[in-house]
Structures are given as structure tokens and as C-alpha cells.
Amino acid sequence: MFLLDAPITRRRQVARGMFVLGLEAPEIASSVRAGQFVNLGWAGGPLLRRPFSVYRADGDHIEVVLKAVGAGTAQLLGMELGDRVSCLGPLGRGFELAGRSAVLVSGGLGVAPMPLVVRDARTSGMEVTWVHGARTAAELCAEAEGDTLIWATDDGSQGFHGTAVAAAPDGDVVVACGPNRMLAAVAERWPHAQVAVETYMGCGTGVCLGCAVPLRRGGYDRACKEGPVYHAADIDWSALPSHLAYAVGA
Fold this sequence. Notes:
Blueprint: E1 2-15, E2 18-24, H1 26-29, E3 37-41, E4 50-53, E5 56-58, E6 61-67, H2 71-77, E7 84-91, E8 101-107, H3 114-123, E9 127-134, E10 148-153, E11 160-161, H4 164-167, E12 173-177, H5 180-189, E13 194-196, E14 212-214, E15 220-222, E16 229-231
């Protein structure tokens, strides 16, 4: 885990209202695994850091993906290239990728960890199918990739008319990220799927206990330490909010 003063180095739009920010963070870029996240803070920003899955890592740079869904993310998107953020990471437990094929299921901002999943799965020699869903075509991330790419939209404006979960084939490994309502549906279809849980976070290091995840066996885990990646069947989905007031990437 590293705490870095990271300049913003790039910014681009990848869907309606969805942007990618690049940060110069060499120590994190060289060590991050798919599914891990960073906790970002900045001068004049919210009291608590904001968690974001690492979207891509190349050379000395990492990227995160976000929307302006609240005051904090709006501030972050309003910053200029060269402005600096306090970047803590990599944090959490990532995906375990082994087998012949991987099926990636993402909804909306659930694209956040998937490019690194593609990278790590291909490094392991796996065939990758990525199924990405959104409410409408304009909200589909333009940077989805894989050996097979399947689009799904709620309104039928592009690809499969319905959810990403319904559109997805089976695979040796299924990984998913998106709203908890979607992940609960993943758990019903693939109990052993690996899911990146959406929850509120505070410190990101396991101290504050603000990211408690209810477990089916009873008790709680800390998403920032034991997660954010879990086997879908291990989570008590009825005790998690179906959607958060602000969207997080991890």
C-alpha cells in the first residue's frame, strides 16, 4: 500500500456522463491487481476519501472511471490536468482468475475493474467474453473489450434487449461488477461468481468499519480488507442497499 501525491495526467469521456481520469502513480501502477481500488482525497474535497476501482494501469499511470453523481465527484471532475490528489492504494482483495474462459458482466459504472480483469485473464491464457449493460446505448462504455463483446440495454437501443445478466453466457470463471441489485441476480444464476461489491467506504484500510458487508453465514466483513471481491453466494444481498446515493467504483 502506497500513499502518493498524484498529478492528474489525462481525462476523456467514455459514455454519457462517464469519464476516465489518469493519475501518475507508478508504485500503484506496477503492483495493482484486477479488482483492487484506490482511495482518493483532495484539497477542499469531502471529509472522507472516495474509493475507485483501478480501471487501467500502464507504465507509471493508473486510471479511474467516474460520473459526477455528487458534490465530491463533481469536484474531482472539475479539476485540471496537473492538479494533484492524495492517492492511497492499491487496496482490497482482487479477482482470482484461473481456467479456460472468463465471462465479465458489468452494469453502468461496473465497467470500473473490467479492463484490468481483461488484462489479467489474457495473461493467464483465458478466453474473455465481456457483457456490458446500461439503460440505453449512450450510457454504454465505449472502451469495453474482449475476445467476444456483448452489449445489453434496458431499452433495446443497442445489442440485447434486457439485462447484462440475462445476456451473458456461462464460463469457467464469472466476474461481475455493478449495482447490488444486479449482483444479487448474478448470485442467483452463478452462486460461485466473483463479484465486486458496491458499498460505502471511509478509511479504506479496515480501521473505521464503515464498509461492513453482511454475510449469509452471519456477521460482517470489511469490503476494503476482505473484499471488495467476494463469491456471490457468500453475501446477504437482502441486507445491502440495492443502489447507493453516490456511485463508487469498488
